Amino acid sequence: MSLPLPPGDFRAYLFDCDGTIVDSMPLHYSAWCSALDEWGCEFPEELFYAWGGRPIADIVAALNERHGLAMPVDTVVQRQEELYQRALPEVTAVPEVLAHIEDAHGRIPFAVVSGGTRESVTVSLDTLGLLDRFETLVCAGDYTRPKPDPEAFLLAARRLGVPPADCLVFEDTDLGIRAATAADMASVRVPAPWERVAAA
Description:
Blueprint: E1 12-15, H1 25-37, H2 45-50, H3 56-67, H4 73-87, H5 95-104, E2 110-113, H6 118-127, E3 136-138, H7 151-160, E4 167-171, H8 174-182, E5 186-189, H9 193-199
Parallel strand pairs: 1-2, 1-4, 2-3, 4-5
Helix pairs in contact: 1-4, 3-4
């Protein structure tokens, strides 16, 4: 399947990372389950996808509240990332998004805008040989208000020197689409893995 873009003469592309450029959500979920199992914490798959786009530390804090647990946030975050990185050799790019990266690279600047840590984003993109395609990475810790707040997308636009209205956002989550809209940016929704399979 192809990924049609909205009409417009866009001067920059802003990409979420996990589930958008990198087909990593199944690997992330497996890593989450293994990390949380060490603390006796359940994380239903539907909830994992519903919370897509939230910073990883926020997810641990929310699970603590939801289950009445006291998991140490930094420890669980570190463990999840460690387990994810072990699985990285299996990761692939989302073909429909990769096609747009290949087509527009060199003509307009790109940024990554992610709720993931800089380490996780960098390792994922480097594994796919795509890290050098992006002029800037905006990751957790670079902004104070996560998606659906527009702060991260607006920061990326400023770093690229492109007005928000001239940016196109690629996103796979509701939070990300809402953040793009709040930033006055057009967006394209990247289908979830099962949607891409069904449409193939």
